[in-house]
Amino acid sequence: MATRRIRQMLGVAVKAAAGLFAVGVVAVISGFFLFLSAVPRSGAPLLTPADGIVVLTGGSQRVDGAVALLAGGHARRLLVSGVYARTTRAQLASQSPDAASLFNCCVDLDYRARNTIGNAIETRRWAREHDFRTLIVVTSNYHMPRALVEMRSILADYELKPYAVVTGPVDPDTWWRSPASARLLMAEYGKYLVALVRTRLESDPEYAPMSLMAGGRKPLFSGNWFAERPAGG
């Protein structure tokens, strides 16, 4: 009798676990399609100007798009966040020869951010430094949902205007036709879910343990947030 009862209990537990697993799978798949629907298809038109523009590095098209917005008078200054240590101002300016003069007056380079969390932290420092309240956020379309989660978690009192740059063959409407697009979007979806959970569990990401672990090492706190080029770079 006891053995039969144990078997019945195990059977119920297995069925419950299978049901929970099935619900989890459905939730993850449904969430993926919701994520795809949030991926911008093109750069949104900007009807009103902003105080500043921040572009998250990860491709020359992102920087080109941000510089074009600055040249078009959509904001007063531009922050290029997450610049590679060996990249100079002159090298970035050479990619936009028609607007090269802007790099001498209106473009700041951030060499400290190592990931999207760092981008958000450095953007807040930059915005406070210049007393900006409205920011245009420029990044790739597939990266925009996660970028906004990170930015809004630390810039809750700021107005953020997303401007997506469509880069490469990543098409959220036909992703299943390209294994490369599918892998990129699925990986980005996983990071997006982690960002959603982390930003709801932690406090200020500049000091929160989960953000420090996600970044792999502590952000830099000493000195100015902005540097022309890192020492020895």
UniProtKB/TrEMBL annotation:
Keywords: Membrane, Transmembrane, Transmembrane helix
Domain of life the protein comes from: Bacteria
Membrane-spanning segments: 12-36
Pfam families given in the database record: DUF218
Transmembrane helix listed as a keyword: yes
Domain DUF218 per the UniProt entry, residue ranges: 51-175
InterPro entries with a match to the protein in the record: Cell_Envelope_Assoc, DUF218, Rossmann-like_a/b/a_fold
Name of the protein this chain belongs to: YdcF family protein
Organism: Camelimonas fluminis
